[in-house]
Fold:
Amino acid sequence: MKKIKYPIKKKRTGKVDQGKFAFNNPYKPSKVVKTIFYVLLILLPVFLAYLYLRSSLKINHVFSFPLDDPWIHLTFAKNLSEYFSFSYFKNEMVTAGSTSPLYTILLAIGFFVTGNEMILSYVIGILFFVLAAIAFYWLASVEFIKENAFAMLCTGIFVIDKWMNFISVSGMETTMFIFILILCAYFYRERKAVPFAVMLGLIMWTRPDGVVFIIAVIIDYMLVRIYSKEEIYLRLFSDTELKKIALIFTGILGLYFVMNLLLSGSVLPNTYNAKLTYYSPEFRSRYEFLRDEVWKYFTRDSKFSFEYFLINLMMVGFLFSIAKLIYDLYKKTYNQNTIYILFILGLVFVYFLKLPYAHRFGRYMMPLIPFYILVATIGFRDIARLLNRFTDNALFAKSVFYIFIGITFFQGIKDYDDTRELYVVQSKYIYDRQVKAANWIKDNTNENDVIATHDVGAIGYYSNRKIVDVAGLVTPELIKKINDIDYVNYMSDYMSKNGVTYLAFLREWYRVANQEALFTTAGLLPPEIMEVYKFEPGKTKILSREVNSLLMKAQMLVGRKDGQQMIYVLNRLLALDPNCAQAYYLRGFASMYLKDNVGFEKDLLKANEIYPNYTDPLYYLGEFYKNERRFEESQIQLTKYLQLVPDNKMATGFLRVVNDSLQARQNQNFLAK
Structure:
């Protein structure tokens, strides 16, 4: 059976359009060249990913991930391997909380080989990066069937891509998902029915948003059927093959739905509903999603200029391919990029419509990258062909193509280095918050304690404690209430009924007021602050989302010393929640900025009335009274402060001055008598 020959099309006129462009001259690499290239495809991804790990270990001295999510897969996998249960705690929390059950199953198998979760995750991520690179070359060879050198160059761009290297050592299913998508596209192009059907079915087992690729394949094949009547180079599946595809695909997909139904009573994982609920478009800007998380993700955040044009050549090639697709649709001619462009635009549209959020580092957009690279490179080739047609100069046209490719490679190498630094920083960022909090919980709580948190990854894996997930990913009962105005009250009641004893929250998500944190990263690791609290039902106060938002806004205004605006924001906050000690403390500082000493003193005293062990007001009142020569009051505040924070040298010095002043005053009074 003949392969699909996209670059040379048999038109309705019967003429073959090859033009004078030498790129259409067949190039088939020798066996030696091909062997060398395959060796590079294996070694280069491994080496580039290894450099990320080496840099991280050298600077951070620990292995980590730049995301918390990998430990969610690892927790499910560990329990699956130990208890043969798809559970988040031993065999007691059975739930469909993994977005990628296929990846979780592979990790579970891996735990029979090694108990080192970091090595296991790195090896699987890099392995699928290598496999994805090989599959990408196969697919590119089909698309550039007369121009294999282009296929090699295109594959090189994919291998050095910054995000592919970044995610390959991030402990996520992304490289596996990308491999399955690319291999599925390759088998579809080659019309290999059985492997195509298997890959098509496995897409949903890897990520539910892969349904967009399935839809793109269906639409593309419908167009192939329509255009094949006129364009005889297009090849169809036979009726027998279509039946095999339908049977295999529905069988694999059916098992996926049955598994989720048995685990959680829904055909899709908990994570799907939880994220759709929490990141609802009602609370997210669709415009900002398109601008910041799509357009800027695939380009650069800079002004339009000649430099902007050079560093965004990939987008130039991609947009040219879109324009060509529109033209071909108008001319009723099949376009080889149809399936890829449909997938790219379709996935962006689905997230725009349902979940305008690309997650950290644009993780939800990463599966688009190989197809974006392929479409853009085909666009480069078609731009060069167009130039050749109008200039009748093959050398000039070829030079333009290779210049485009050269600039893209140069920019890719630069981006790779920049993103390697990002990987190092973010891996430490996660380690210092999630992993250290998890280890603190493991070392300072009992085995029967229950931890409530919204970041269930590292805390769930390393603490070895039962988890209540207030974000709903592994506690689906909470999902429907997440965006309710009174969710904090509902959540507190749920935690009380389910035996929660400790809370582990990032302040930016949920904030505990009027209580001392047992573990905190405050003052050490801005901007996000992880804190662990003892949960006391009926006493522990968790601020509502609206109140916490106002509190964070007021804290932001502290840096600007905008007292008037702070007071306005904090008055709104206190109207909603009059028992928030932190709000009075900040309003006191706002009064200080406005030189209102009476307001400053009143609000700090109120903060300590609500929360007697609140150290910050004690310290600043002690300093304030000292400066005002109200030494008795200063002594009371500073003494209590040092009982709570005995190692503060500044406060110790203040108290020494206060005591000396009081002693001097007593001596003067004695002499006066």
